[in-house]
Design a protein that fits this description.
The protein has 166 residues and is mainly α. The chain has 8 helices and no strands. The protein has one domain.
């Protein structure tokens, strides 16, 4: 699929991710939004990559079904996009920057599979600028796991919320 197709997947994923959410939470500086949008884009891209549909033609119920199957299923879909080894890897690039609209599917996947620093055990105030690269985060703040493992259920929720709004 072309770079324009990936841009379309990110754009549609962004629309899906914002369904039913306050606009203040749907920005490039919000970890939850960037993660949910990335997961949805990978799902859309992998479904469209078989050549049968463009990303706009993929029914939301199909996106919902794939997200509801969980992170392992999203990783299986990602294998067609980023390769088997990277799809099943974790923390391949521990310093992967947050993906933006112009970044590739691989860049997005590296961020989605990045692990995050754990909570400081001594109770000192957390420095979010170091913990999540300056992004705000609301979901599972104390979980150092990868976004793909934490947010796939939230991506399913976003797809469910978007059904009937497109």
């Amino acid at each position: 699929m072309s770079p324009e197709g990936w841009a379309g997947a990110l754009e549609r994923a962004g629309r899906i991710a914002t369904a039913g959410q306050p606009s203040a939470l749907c920005t490039e500086t919000h970890w939850d939004y960037v993660g949910v949008r990335g997961i949805l884009a990978i799902v859309l891209w992998s479904l469209a990559d078989d050549g049968r549909l463009d990303v706009e033609g993929i029914p939301l119920r199909e996106v919902l079904d794939h997200c509801e199957r969980g992170p392992a299923h999203v990783r299986a879909l990602a294998a067609a996009v980023v390769g088997e080894e990277l799809a099943n890897g974790l923390d391949a690039d521990p310093h992967a920057a947050a993906p933006t609209a112009g970044d590739s599917p691989v860049t997005t996947w590296l961020w989605l599979t990045r692990r995050w620093p754990p909570t400081v055990p001594d109770g000192r105030p957390r420095d979010q600028s170091r913990r999540w690269d300056g992004m705000s985060r609301g979901i599972a703040r104390d979980d150092p796991g990868a976004a793909v493992d934490i947010l796939t259920g939230w991506a399913a929720g976003a797809a469910a919320a978007a059904i009937g709004t497109e």
